[in-house]
């Protein structure tokens, strides 16, 4: 069933307010934008449950408009992250030598956690297509837990770093890139949590939903971006 929705407008408004708050350095505006955006995501996913059906992944053998929209969004976000990573490579000679981290400590740990979550979400995806909803929900829940561990450990790393956001070009780029990636991970955690709930409550219809597929595609995107962040920002630049 195709659902006409106004929730994407709410999500977009929340993102705009978040960017405004971040660029202005006003935490309250950023938090309001985050709340509006997340509320829009919850409403967008949940409306199918209320209306009694899920929009299918494909329409007459081709991807639905929603699925195509997810792919376009992932492509645009990939371009954004690649631009940030490329700027790090271009400006590496201006990074302060004091802005260094030990690759064998926190970066390696959180990389193992996040990449392992890619395995768990794939197992959840496979079980969804096999219509085994209980194990699918379990594996998606494992993904949520791993994402949470990633965010907590990375925040601990930021708290213990001896350089800050305003400590030279390197510090600014480091926190900009890892911060935006961390924000994407938080969004992915929320989306996977909602998917886990919908798998439990939504019955078999969830298997054909482009929203379920979109969440899984998004999480794989977050994993792949982290590989570039790890290799370029942590290893090459620092």
UniProtKB/TrEMBL annotation:
<feature type="transmembrane region" description="Helical">
    <location>
        <begin position="216"/>
        <end position="237"/>
    </location>
</feature>
<feature type="transmembrane region" description="Helical">
    <location>
        <begin position="106"/>
        <end position="124"/>
    </location>
</feature>
<feature type="transmembrane region" description="Helical">
    <location>
        <begin position="66"/>
        <end position="86"/>
    </location>
</feature>
<dbReference type="InterPro" id="IPR024791">
    <property type="entry name" value="Cyt_c/ubiquinol_Oxase_su3"/>
</dbReference>
<dbReference type="Pfam" id="PF00510">
    <property type="entry name" value="COX3"/>
</dbReference>
<dbReference type="InterPro" id="IPR035973">
    <property type="entry name" value="Cyt_c_oxidase_su3-like_sf"/>
</dbReference>
<keyword id="KW-0812">Transmembrane</keyword>
<keyword id="KW-1133">Transmembrane helix</keyword>
<protein>
    <recommendedName>
        <fullName>Cytochrome c oxidase subunit 3</fullName>
    </recommendedName>
</protein>
<keyword id="KW-0472">Membrane</keyword>
<feature type="transmembrane region" description="Helical">
    <location>
        <begin position="136"/>
        <end position="156"/>
    </location>
</feature>
<dbReference type="GO" id="GO:0016020">
    <property type="term" value="C:membrane"/>
</dbReference>
<keyword id="KW-0496">Mitochondrion</keyword>
<feature type="transmembrane region" description="Helical">
    <location>
        <begin position="12"/>
        <end position="45"/>
    </location>
</feature>
<dbReference type="GO" id="GO:0004129">
    <property type="term" value="F:cytochrome-c oxidase activity"/>
</dbReference>
<comment type="similarity">
    <text>Belongs to the cytochrome c oxidase subunit 3 family.</text>
</comment>
<dbReference type="GO" id="GO:0019646">
    <property type="term" value="P:aerobic electron transport chain"/>
</dbReference>
<dbReference type="InterPro" id="IPR013833">
    <property type="entry name" value="Cyt_c_oxidase_su3_a-hlx"/>
</dbReference>
<dbReference type="InterPro" id="IPR000298">
    <property type="entry name" value="Cyt_c_oxidase-like_su3"/>
</dbReference>
<feature type="domain" description="Heme-copper oxidase subunit III family profile">
    <location>
        <begin position="1"/>
        <end position="238"/>
    </location>
</feature>
<comment type="function">
    <text>Component of the cytochrome c oxidase, the last enzyme in the mitochondrial electron transport chain which drives oxidative phosphorylation. The respiratory chain contains 3 multisubunit complexes succinate dehydrogenase (complex II, CII), ubiquinol-cytochrome c oxidoreductase (cytochrome b-c1 complex, complex III, CIII) and cytochrome c oxidase (complex IV, CIV), that cooperate to transfer electrons derived from NADH and succinate to molecular oxygen, creating an electrochemical gradient over the inner membrane that drives transmembrane transport and the ATP synthase.</text>
</comment>
<keyword id="KW-1278">Translocase</keyword>
